[in-house]
Each structure stands twice: as C-alpha cells, then as structure tokens.
Amino acid sequence: MNDSQVNLSxxxxxxGVGRVAVVNWRRRHGGLDATGGTKESPTFSRAAAEKWLRAxxxxxxxxxxxxPATLTFAGGQTIAAYAPHLRLxxxxxxxxxxxxxxxxxx
Length: 106
Known about the structure:
Elements: E1 5-7, H1 8-15, H2 19-29, E2 36-37, E3 42-45, H3 46-56, E4 61-64, E5 69-72, E6 78-88, E7 100-104
Antiparallel strand pairs: 1-3, 2-3, 4-6, 5-6, 6-7
C-alpha cells in the first residue's frame, strides 16, 4: 500500500470514527469501490475515499499547518505535535461544542 491508497481503518481515522462505522456506511450507501487489497482487507484510492466521505458529509473540516505545534501542559511538561490539525465540528453534530486537536508525537 502506498500514500495514495488507504484501508478501512485509515478512512475511519479521516472521518474521526471507528472502522465498523465505515463498513456500515459502505454497506448502507455504497459508492466506494475497492482498488486493491483482499475481500477482508480492501484498499481504496485516497482521493476517492475523501470524495466519498465529503459526499456523505462525514469528512470533518480541519485546519492544518506544516509547523509542529508545541503543547505545554499544567505542570510545565512540553511536547511537539507533528502534522497538527484542529477538527472543527459541524453545527448540529452531537459533539458540536467540542474541538479536537490531533497529530502525532515522535
């Protein structure tokens, strides 16, 4: 699998849900065809997966920056988050009062 291919778990992370939700959306709505992998672990075009999630209204709006974000916690501990993103919830979403910050730490 390369950067242009994603699996069900990666699509789920893009949407901020679990893998089972993506399986159910595919079953219920269709429209996302596998481009590789196996029946048990299919892979998909990243561009097609993003387009599909957007069409379903499941792709969260995000802001991104190329610079790492420095996070300082109470007590003074500091970490750097790479590929940081801030998920801004859609109005009417049951989590519309919360923003989510994500990224990874090396």
